[in-house]
Structure prediction request, 213 residues.
Amino acid sequence: MNTTTPHNRPGTAETQIPVPASGMAGSRDLVLGIGCDRNTPYATLAQVIDEALAQLEASWADVRAVASIDLKADEVAMQELQRQRGHTIHFYPATWLAQVPVPNPSETVRKYTGTPSVSEAAALLVVGEAAQAFAHAATDDAPARAPVPPSHAPQEASVPVSQRSVSLPVPAPMSALLIEKHKLRGPDGRNATVSVARADEMARLLPETGRHT
Prediction:
């Protein structure tokens, strides 16, 4: 189901939702993929996130991980989000994000970032990273809960993932997205976008772990 509202005026938003909120089936393990224009204020970024979560009758307490593109690692809004909300943002390079199949690729986004998707791709990629970590760490006495990607120290937040000794995670399928894109244009005309995915989606696809969420 897709619902849209006009977004050509400041303070209005557009939302693309593939399933209704009831499609969460009780899940409260969510990940966020976020993107924004250069110099977007923190207030706009915080508002677009809160609006998207409200559509799912969820809150920030339900968020397990946040991800974006490494081009945005130096954004004041991103740094403030980490400080105020307590989640270290996972920043991925455009070359990684460009390999993730998404429902709403954009050539305009590719022109400016090097990838046709930021928020959708980042959300799906961080779910995949979470599942990969979950599969590697699973033990007989491990708690059966949705996985969380490995935490990176706050001082590493601005270091692109491509500079770490890690491999590209297998992204979650597009079906993991509960909200494909929720976009808000702030009073200054700058846009912020958030995509919301289920953090447990990939764990369902990893029977070798012996775990089910």
